[in-house]
Amino acid sequence: MPVPRAGGGDGAGMNNLGGPQDWYDSLPIVTKHWLTAAIATTVAANFGVFGIDRLIWDFDSLKNNFEIWRFLTPFFYVGPFEFRTAIRFLTLYQFSLRYETEGPYNTGGGGGTSDYVYMLLFGMVSSVLLAFVSQTYLFSSTMIFYVLYLWAKRNPIGKASIFGISMKAAYFPFALLLFEVFVGNPWYDIVKGYAIAHLFYFLVDVVPFAYGKDYLQTPNFLIDFFGSGIYVPPVSNRTGDAVGNNTWSAPGRTRAPNDPAANRGSSHNWGGGRTLGTN
User: Is residue 186's pLDDT more than 90?
Assistant: First the structure.
């Protein structure tokens, strides 16, 4: 399997920081929690802490036995201890990091963290719905390639590479798929991820401009929680810029949105994002 890489920029690996802890602390919130949950679930399953059959999507078990963890665990188990699984983790890390830091599609949260979370929720719900017709029980690879495809759509002139062969991001998802088919690797999850991603892209980047409709809008509660723009964890603040009666700054205020709310010919109540330059 090829080692896909997102090129350009100065990266965010351990070589640029003081060590593993500094690298981990530097990860943006969504990538950090997704990567952590995926590693923990995959390692625990491979060491026999719990069986893989307890992690897969099983609607009957969820309905009859109230095994509600099955809403999440199919997205976090990546695979057995093998080279392909390691590449999946690398792909998750690289493209989630790039998509989150370079600016998700703006669906109301200023192109920031709340929009990324909403995009992931769309992918998760779509994956579960497809499982009823495709008999799929694990969704981690589907979600990884879902994010990869949307990163490429969002940054079409960015750089990516396979085995050192550099190309524009716009061509990268298809080059990766062709390679997987050529070498005989499983490709079904890749196609599903691309299909769901293209649907999301069509609804947020084509429909609003072609038809004047905004069907996907980040819910207010996500914007209220993560703020407008890239989320920054609240820090102790005893200089007067506190929230309510506490001494913690509100999230999302330190770094401004990297993609101000798009003007699509109509206005919406996007929720709790704050106007830059106001308190």
Answer: no
